[in-house]
Amino acid sequence: MVQSISTLLVLGASGDLASRLLLPALGQLLTRHPERPVRLVGAASDELTHAAWKSIVRASFASAEASGPAIDALLATTSYHTVDVTDSAALSNLLADCEGDPAIYFALPPAVTTLVCDALTDVTLPDGVKLALEKPFGVDEAGAVALNHKLAQLVPEEKIFRIDHFLGRSTVLNLLGLRFANRVFEPLWSNQHIARIDIIYDEQLGLEGRAGYYDKAGALVDMIQSHLLQVMAVVAMEPPSTLSAADVRDAKGLVLRATKLRGGSPKRSSRRARYTAGTVDEQVLGAYTDQPGVKPERDTETLAEVTVDINTWRWTGVPFTLRSGKALGQRRREIVITFKPAPHLPTGLEGRDDPSVLRIMLAPDEMALEININGPSDPRVLERASLTATFGPGQLLAYGEVLESLFDGDPALSVRGDTAVECWRIVAPVLTAWRDGTVPLDDYPAGTAGPADWAPLG
Ligand SMILES: NC(=O)C1=CN([C@@H]2O[C@H](COP(=O)(O)OP(=O)(O)OC[C@H]3O[C@@H](n4cnc5c(N)ncnc54)[C@H](OP(=O)(O)O)[C@@H]3O)[C@@H](O)[C@H]2O)C=CC1
Ligand SMILES: O=C1O[C@H](COP(=O)(O)O)[C@@H](O)[C@H](O)[C@H]1O
């Protein structure tokens, strides 16, 4: 391992991403690998004292049980700057506070990230700088194309990391192992035997004070346009020759280029809803529209569902439904692969003969293969059984994996520029239809499974 950066400069350091996910993961990484010393510089518009910043970092590290010499060294030297990060002079000052080669981490809403990239054109960047940009990449398809061009003027492609932390989850490797290290699944992995695939990421979390970002994004852009399409690409991709960044990115790119909204109709293939007041896990949650910073007239959805087709020999005809939402009653993070029914049940066998279902659960990663077997008392009567397994949790948090690959300059866990644009192309008709009001905005009480008349998935 040759660590190629010395400073992590986090823009948007006072935000939810930084304190809840990025800093704990940095703490965990440095605890496991103290030989990777890194200076941490934070910047955001929030007025934080040095002591307040240090206590944020300390609390984030504590949440990951981070400790040791690299942690102590980082805490002794970390600094925080209250600045407008879209200002070129402020950015130059921030870079002056970095030691050695920095990675600039854009933990910012996408519109702000674009402005920072504009501002960086007036800044002299160190040769070894790396740019790590959070999802969503840009604010729409044209914006993503323009952002790619802007970035190309700043640094070469190999220094650009379009972050999607779902690629850092052990789930991705687990999926590749399950599919390509066994002969039993791959021959069935196509429209010949699979009826439908649902990818569900239901959260119990509400807005968590993130209106500044989320109210302009909504569930479709926040989760489906990025994370869930990436997961779908791994579920559906052709077997890669190696797990190298080039092979896996090519294979994902082929899937996403072939993906289109099912039937080309946003009205039939998408649904959206927003939570009203309710109780999640015994906690009372106010309506989304009553949260500070939310503008109800934006009609931001907190639950989204989209069905796409992958137009290839392997997948034509199989609907892939992606769903994600907030403030739901149950946390449900699952890839559900529903097989076609057996073509003929021998006469003489009775009872339950539902199609087989393979469920791959995310965090903790587990799988369950639900099949029909002969019942214990009368062997002519079928019953349902579930074969389960637990995957290893991985050594690092998803963001730890992401940071490690950023520090090492390995693009395996980041999204290629053309793929980031493809993902916007796939959801563009839905965004337009939702803006036009062609698809109604339903509602659901927080703590429920979603609108009462939505058919359940998986
Ligand atoms: N939170 C999460 O769970 C995850 C978030 N992400 C991504 O991370 C990004 C940020 O999200 P999140 O942290 O949730 O959003 P937040 O709204 O919580 O944080 C945004 C941060 O950016 C700062 N900021 C905004 N504009 C400026 C500016 N002009 N100058 C300086 N600072 C500025 C804010 O400072 P201030 O508050 O002072 O305005 C705040 O620190 C998004 O792209 C999101 O998709 C990705 C994965 C998970
Ligand atoms: O990117 C995001 O992801 C989180 C969900 O990921 P998790 O790893 O925290 O489960 C989501 O809550 C957030 O809205 C979104 O921006």
Integer average pLDDT = 95
Indicate the radius of gyration in whole angstroms.
Answer: 23 Å
Show unreliable segments: none
Distance between the termini: 42 Å
What's the CATH architecture of the largest domain?
A: 2-Layer Sandwich
Ligand inventory:
NADPH dihydro-nicotinamide-adenine-dinucleotide phosphate, ligand LXAUTJHC
> What's the number of domains?
2
Task: Give a quick rundown of the structure.
The chain has twelve helices and 19 strands.
Written description of the protein model:
The chain is α/β, with parallel strands linked by helices. It folds into 2 domains: 7-134, Rossmann fold; 167-392 and 415-445, Dihydrodipicolinate Reductase, domain 2, CATH 3.30.360.10. The protein is built from 12 helices and 19 strands. Strands 7, 8, 9, 12, 13, 14, 15, 16, 17, 18 and 19 form an 11-stranded mixed beta sheet that branches. Strand 10 (278-280) and strand 11 (283-285) form a beta hairpin. The longest helix has 26 residues, at 211-236. The chain is globular and about 80 Å long. The model has no long low-confidence stretch (mean pLDDT 95). Bound molecules: NADPH dihydro-nicotinamide-adenine-dinucleotide phosphate (NDP) and the ligand O=C1O[C@H](COP(=O)(O)O)[C@@H](O)[C@H](O)[C@H]1O. The ligand O=C1O[C@H](COP(=O)(O)O)[C@@H](O)[C@H](O)[C@H]1O is lined by residues 203, 205, 222, 398. It is an enzyme of class 1 (oxidoreductase). It holds the Pfam family G6PD_C. Its EC number is 1.1.1.49. Residues 178-453 form the Glucose-6-phosphate dehydrogenase C-terminal domain. It catalyses: D-glucose 6-phosphate + NADP(+) = 6-phospho-D-glucono-1,5-lactone + NADPH + H(+).
